[in-house]
């Protein structure tokens, strides 16, 4: 190859190299422009979103002197409440309020008629809804103590309303009503309550508390929803622990009810809980007397050996594991004990006539205490 040819080839390579460099510069410019554009769009979107949310978290009108009557119907969820507040100009955005409530893990909002104004902050609104600061006084209140069965709760409701106990029980066990509740409270009620072995679907689900009512004659269904809302708010506080123990809410309330029925004022519920869990782990029946009485459908001061032979899925002397469902409603201390049993080797416990509960590791030790304290 001659010198002239080599020179021409070299020149061609240089031209090609320059062309590629120019193309690379163009590509880099395009990429830079696109990148900057995307960043600017992101800043605008997120900045605008931040400003919008920040604005939505503030009072609608800090200088307003308008007061509005806001009615929160019985059974209203957060979504419904949020929309009601937005429609009445108490909050700026229902979605922002809903996410605020979820982020703050707020619950337990109460139905009723409230007086609110656009100057209220979100924390003030939430506090008002939780404490039930309504504009009128309660027409009546229903107090449900701990450890009450559904039949007893029906009698308590009947005393404060125009409904008879039998009518209340019929309504609370209505298949269509229960199915509607399952759809309304999917995180609380599941098809477990529809198990044919379960005596009363809502047994154990009506939380012990005092419930104010602001209408003279609420329906049985509305009364039940008020109580279920309370149960849901309590259970929601323990969702993480329930998942960690790999329990369903139904199992939790069932175990809590057994603890509640065996506990006395003096007893450590966590130790009773440990006995139940230890027996389940050991493959032993729970053998707790309150389940026998629940199976028989009666209250007795003393359970006899012949009572233990009743053939019923709730009889824990005849059937291993938990009962098909709760046998009563449980208070907070029993729910917590069901989630946090003490670490013990106890397999037996004995309630003395004085209200003390004695724990044992062996049957021999248990029988000794029984002979000493039970006549």
From TrEMBL:
Site (Important for catalytic activity): 262
Membrane disposition: Single-pass membrane protein
EC code: 4.2.2.29
Key word Membrane present: yes
Pfam families (alphabetical): YceG
Gene Ontology MF annotations: lytic endotransglycosylase activity
Principal location: membrane
Function statement: Functions as a peptidoglycan terminase that cleaves nascent peptidoglycan strands endolytically to terminate their elongation.
Similarity remark: Belongs to the transglycosylase MltG family.
Name of protein: Endolytic murein transglycosylase
Organism: Niallia endozanthoxylica
Gene from which the chain derives: mltG
